[in-house]
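One record is set out below.
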Amino acid sequence: MSERPPTSILLPTTKWTDACAEVTVQLGDGDELLVIHDGAEDPVTEQKESHEGVRLIAAGEPEGCSGKANAIVAGMEAARHDRIVWTDDDYHHPPDWLATMNADYEEHGPVSEVPYFVGQDPLSVVLEPLYASGGSLGLYLGDQIWGGSVVFERGDIDEAAFLDELRRTVSDDGLLMEYLEVTTVGRTRIVPIGGSVREAVERPVRWTQILRWHFPGTVAGICLVSLLVLAGAVLAPLPAAAILTVAHFAVYEVLGIRRWTAVLAYPSLFVFVPLLFYALARRTFVWGGRRYRWRGKFDVAVIE
């Protein structure tokens, strides 16, 4: 078997996290980890590229796109290799993570893993079951991309067109779905989310806006189904509670998750549906410390 090609791992972050260290020790000969930050004031610059194979890339302030999109553009342009892995700084990367991603590419071509979002505040905990069934399960069954763990090669996409559009939008993985077909492997990564009520509210606003601009038919379907299920939950609470709880334990089983929060599926519905419509009505949202107004798929204003 021939040796695998070297890999460029793109990891946007402003500080050196456990994930950075975990990926660093997995680098093989020729691999590189690009830690992409905003500028010289970010805490991550204290690392001063002291780790072999690690490069710090300053993306600068975003103009007309999100900070994450801006970072990915800078990383793609700076990366030296054809094989690219995108990842995030907020979850555990086990010792075989990079090797497994590369092996998956050799077997399947472009591959993505699946996130499961674990709440760090009461509201995010309550919403866990619906995030699992409405988000994680959809990614898994639909072979959709999670930008926190995806591998592909430059030749798999129209890179010039992709980067041009990425400079003018918010969602990196939402746009990549339009350029790349992947196989979603059956590995779920635990991603902590929330921590405050504000974060818990802003996150579904951003996720809903991504669906609105990239997959309007999907968000319309989610709204319709959510209203129908909510009506059933109001009219027949006991059967609905039983069905929703059992169904979400089944969802967790498919995702390989052992979490008690499946029992919150029924009350979660009464929080999720109003939040869904609130998210559609909102005109701005906060992500990574910046406030954005997303007026069209390629019409983004950074307003704070």
In short: The longest helix spans residues 122-141. The beta strands are 7-12, 32-37, 54-58, 83-87, 111-119, 149-153, 183-193, 284-287, 290-296, 299-302.
